[in-house]
Amino acid sequence: MGKRLAAEGVLSEPACDGLSGEAGLAKVDVKLTALSKPATLWRSSGGGSMRRQCINGFRGLVVAMISCQASVIFAAQAPGLVSTEVLLTSAAGHKLAVMDPVVFYPDGAAASKTQVQIETAKLRQTVTGIGTSFTESSAFVLAHLPDAARRSVMAQLFSDQGANFSLARTPIGATDFSVEGRYDYAPVPDDLGLKYFSIAEDQMGFNPMRYPGVITPDFDLLPMIKEALAIKQQQADSSLRIIASAWTAPPWMKDIEGYYQSGTPETNYEGTGGHLKPRYEAVYADYLIRYLDAYADAGVPIWGLTPVNEPEGNGGQWESMHFTAASQARFIQDHLGPKLRASPYADTALLIFDQNRDRLEHWAETILSQPDAAQYVYGSAIHWYASTTNVYGDVLERVHAQFPDFDLIHTEGTIDDLGKPAPGGIADPDGFTETDWFNNDAFWWQRRATDWAYTASWAPNAADHPMYTPVHRYARNIIGSLNHWVSGWIDWNPVLDERGGPNHVGNFCGAPIMVNLETKAVYVTPIYHVLAQFSRTIRPGDRAVTVSVDTAGLPEDALHVGATLSPEGLLSVQLLNTQATPMTFSLGLLGQRAVVTLPANALQTIRVEIAKAPKINN
To answer: Taking the mean position of all CA atoms in its chain, how far away is CA 524?
Structure first.
């Protein structure tokens, strides 16, 4: 318009509910000193940041941004970038709700002390995907639903009309989230040629005579995976990469000759999963490759593989097997790596470790610094159970800096020990045990969840395990992981019963979808909506984008921001407000700026079409 327009105006009795674009229009008269006569503007009568349009007949658009304190800011320039989609999931009840567009203005003045800058020229890792897992327990719960209800739940998880998960994990043999546990695919001792290898356990189903309430007796782990793949094959976006992890080798290959040994008073209640006997290391490598064969024959390609889940053990509480970092390096170098390379699965992504982030550095330095082992490795798999709040971004940054050619993928996280009675040594036994989570969204949006180490006198770092808000833990971890070189993020069980099971050792956990097995009521928790919002807006092949945040005046954990850019130039900005009140901040992008009001206790995604992503190497 050739000159900056100064605006002066007064708003009376502003409404301020923290939301925008959901109410009608109210007229506001504002005098523009660069105009010959007053212009009539329109604003939404709801609170928060809102757009206003000048309709005085001159070219260009004047936009006023109104904060909850009724301050008015007008940008003189015509608007620049405009979001193509804004999604909101919040404690107030929004579930991937479509919100009003966000408008950017060239050289817009910062209207808040809190500044967020999206640095699209600084691209980082390529995204592998956001996803969930396939478990026998999830299949068991789904087998209790009528066909139409089961297909609906599966569509919510895997179709492009639902979460459209693009990454998944599945166990090789039994886990704690098996209905009865204690099974493997090579049950005959000393079957060195694996003549009796069989994945029958994954597809035998559940007999209603033994499990009353089962409606679809032939539904099981493998049928669940096939149903997900069938959903994918019916849509253009068909990506679903599956990572497989064994919890243990068959007992006859291990020194304890069992799936696990529980702790006793004599062992100070410290159990074990045992170790591979050296003479069976080659056979165990064959066992893993035979699994790849069997699943390929069943029509299920496996994209990634870890030698074992949680090699540092779980205290002998359920199926497990121990490696040290050094022994896993030798196993990969001498057995699994060469056998994979010589097999039809040479391109399978082999991931080391597969346990908690706080120990990643030791494992990466031990294995990835050895060329004879590292030549077979794609990257590292990590979990989140070392802390309920800490993403360990410093650890991830150091590992990436030292080993930039190796990927990082989060392969497991969940709301663990759900409703568990407090064991000995817990300082807050009442707070330790959760209640009232089924069909109650408030539970998932409030600071009411704990994990295994909450206030435990025997935990090594109990201070890292405070009580937490489940939705915040998920969103914070996903955003923080992508900001620190993690390319993929996988949740644990997608579907569990109302108790958080079945789990054959009582390790009940939360899940995105929970089902009352008696009434068949399906409860879609807020965790599902948060995961779906991430999965639908962060797709395989996207690039993580560097984000800088100046949170002046905000508590440390108040605002979390991440961003990704698609090859087609679609930017997705993820914004988590953990506070009980809305916050307003300035969002900078490509020399333009928008004022954004983020509702209380909410995850918002702002998507903007920008120029095609530049070709920058990782």
So the answer is: 16
Which pLDDT tens digit goes with each residue over 478-529?
999 999 999 999 999 999 999 999 999 999 999 999 999 999 999 999 999 9
Q: Which fold has domain 80-127+541-618?
A: Immunoglobulin-like (2.60.40)
DSSP-derived secondary structure for 109-174: PP-SS-EEEEEEEEEEEEP-EEEEE--HHHHHHHTTS-HHHHHHHHHHHHSTTTT---EEEEEES-
Coil, helix or strand for 8? strand
pLDDT at 13: 33
Output the CA–CA distances (angstroms, integers) from residue 39 to 9, 32, 250, in the order listed.
11, 7, 78
pLDDT at 59: 32
Between strands 167-172 and 129-133, the pairing is: parallel
42 phi and psi angles, rounded to 5 deg:
-125, 140
Q: Write 146-149 long-range contacts (CB < 8 A, 24+).
A: 146/215, 146/520, 147/215, 147/216, 149/520, 149/522
- Distance CA(141)–CA(146), nearest Å, equals 11
What local confidence, expressed as pLDDT, does residue 77 receive?
Answer: 53
Contacts of 367 (CB under 8 A, 6+ apart): 325, 328, 329, 332, 352, 353, 373, 374, 377
Measured torsion, CA atoms of residues 213, 214, 216, 219, in degrees rounded to the nearest 10: 160
**Buried b / exposed e along 492-503 (16+ C-beta atoms within 10 A):** bbbbbbbbbbbb
How distant, in Å, are the alpha carbons of 173, 279, 333, 567 from that of 339? 20, 16, 10, 35
The pLDDT of residue 23: 33
Contact assessment for residue 501 and residue 420, using Cβ atoms and an 8 Å cutoff: no
Name the token pair of 70. 């009724």
* In contact, 449 and 415? CB cutoff 8 Å: yes
Domain limits of the chain? 1-78, 80-127+541-618, 128-537
Backbone torsions φ then ψ of 251, nearest 5 degrees: -55, -35
Q: Which residues lie below 8 Å from residue 452, measured CB to CB, with a gap of 6+?
A: 385, 416, 417, 459, 465
CA dist., res. 577 & res. 82, Å (int):
22
The 25-32 sheet, strands edge to edge = 7-9, 25-32, 39-44
Q: Where are the beta strands (DSSP E) in 149-240?
A: 167-172
With H, G, I as helix, E, B as strand and everything else as coil, classify residue 588. Answer: strand
- Close Cβ partners of 118 (under 8 Å, ≥ 6 residues apart): 545, 547, 563, 571, 573, 587, 588, 589, 590
- CB burial string 178-211: b at 16+ within 10 A, e below: bbebebbbbeeeebeebeebebebbbebbeeeeb
Q: What is the pLDDT of residue 78?
A: 61
**pLDDT score at 345:** 98
As a whole number of angstroms, the distance between CA 42 and CA 25 comes to 7
pLDDT < 50: residue spans in the chain: 1-76, 612-618
Q: Which of 72, 76, 168 is nearest to 129 (CA)?
A: 168
One fold for 80-127+541-618 and 128-537: no
Q: Write down the CATH superfamily of domain 128-537.
A: Glycosidases (3.20.20.80)
pLDDT at res. 68 = 36
Q: Distance between CA 477 and CA 526 in Å, rounded?
A: 16
CA atoms of 39 and 550, how far apart (whole Å): 36
- Residue 385: name the closest of 445, 434, 312 by CA: 312
